[in-house]
């Protein structure tokens, strides 16, 4: 609560600094209120779709804004580009395309992740969002034509208290009121609506009473998609008609839905109206120039962050590993260190034989792997969700540039880690009491606020017109870092050392606590483990590694700009790690090279398919594989292991052991017990073959 109050104080301070004296008049206030109510009504439509899908399916749809964006583009294609009548276009988009798309998502994807951990649910819907951004970029390339969508009935309207209220805005307000009332009646006053909500709590029990969970889920997603489409079509005439602004409608919907605690439609409607009014009043009465120029687009994000901080602390969940939760496998540090040594030797060989171009791409792959490595202990081991690794990398890049100018590279690297840890602890300490979905939203809001309010400040990346800063060449020359070959070996060595250190940490007592906190927070509290301290420590570790990676990125690129650390830049990095494997260091390495492969294809081919591949590729793949297992890296390692001679890989019958099978369908053999001991990372003194046991 104190953090929420502090946020409100900052908002009041900015308002007083940007207030336009004498602008508050009766007509101006009335005009801003009408405009705010209309925009807030559109936010309410999108937020209502979020609430419906969450209340009836238990899955929070991060792709709600992207669905609305896709349907708005489809409506533009039919209405403007093809010249079809507006009523026919509305029927086709709202009555056919949107509900069919939503029902298809429910059947093909969402049904399979219904009982998955929150991490995987979040990643799949985020992946769907990026996939839709990529699909729209392919079908309607932004460089080909400037698009706009006219409002309903043009700019005509009626006069009220000296201002013109357009029919488009009046329709938006009326639709929001009708939709909110209809949804309330559907969910709480009809048998089908009650059955839809009951399926979230217990599908089997609801089915025994005649409910049909699959039909309820399809109906919920079809309805949610139609509401997203309606919001996108109504919002398109009010903002620039392009992919990113329409997709980021979801931030406004997030804020409104969270105020309603993802359940209350009246509170959701209230939150949407408040957001619309705040936007309108900021445009009308505040002089948002200079350092405050990004305050208006940041209002929904700040609102979301404050609402999240004001939420009451969630109860500690009882311990059970959700179906589909990836096991955290532990490898011996000695064998992993040997593999890292081989990796360093390989980098030396490549640095000697490859030309400069491929070496630059390899450096990018290793640095991206470092960013992904920061998420392995956080997401893979502790089960915490963060969608802001590149934001902390941006903080590290800034610290590296500023400190290295006067104090050298080493102090720059140290400052990058320290400043990133400070920012990470600040975010985590504010939101650590939140869990799962709410923590993901908090990290997303933090990334968006950093993009709009922190990085553009004159003291950071905003000190030049291009928002670009760089490490001085003479500083790099002192350490021979102007050579790409030296930098490749150095970055690989840094990854190897940090990766080995993380594996040693995983095998330690703290590593076991991380996994225990993920699997059973209630049991950890009962055993006297301070889970808040454990979580803060892993957030600090993750932030430090990401900040260090950002510093290395600044050294590699010589010039870095704030756009490289935007909110959307975080999402492909997280999704590629999910594809490669969140629980292993090798997953981070594979994810970095997947990122490099996409960047190479984008740089080589100018086709719209390849230009949107950074969004389209991770989005499509993560929707297909995020809920299917550990990821690609463990699967590749298992396949390679099966090809090795038996003396190197051991008895294949004992490669995978489920502890629940021992003593029931599988005997307690010494080999099986050894595999279980390795998987649990037991200390040597507690193992079966330890001296004295």
Report the end-to-end length measured between terminal Cα atoms. 52 Å
DSSP strand count: 4
Biggest β-sheet strands, sense, barrel: 2 strands, antiparallel
Class computed from helices, strands and strand pairing: mainly alpha
Work out the helicity level: 55-70%
> What proportion of the residues form beta strands (DSSP E)?
under 5%
The average pLDDT score comes to 80
Alpha-carbon Rg, integer: 26 Å
User: In one word, what is the shape?
Assistant: globular
Supply the number of helical segments.
Answer: 31
Strand order of the largest sheet: 1-2
The residue ranges in which pLDDT falls below 50 over 5 or more consecutive positions are 318-326, 647-657
Protein described:
This protein has 693 residues and is mainly α. The chain is built from 31 helices and 4 strands. The strands form 2 sheets. Strands 1-2 form a two-stranded antiparallel ribbon. The chain has a two-stranded antiparallel ribbon with strand order 3-4. The radius of gyration is 26 Å and the shape is globular. The two termini are 52 Å apart.
Produce a short descriptive summary.
With 693 residues, the protein is mostly helical. It has 31 helices and four strands.
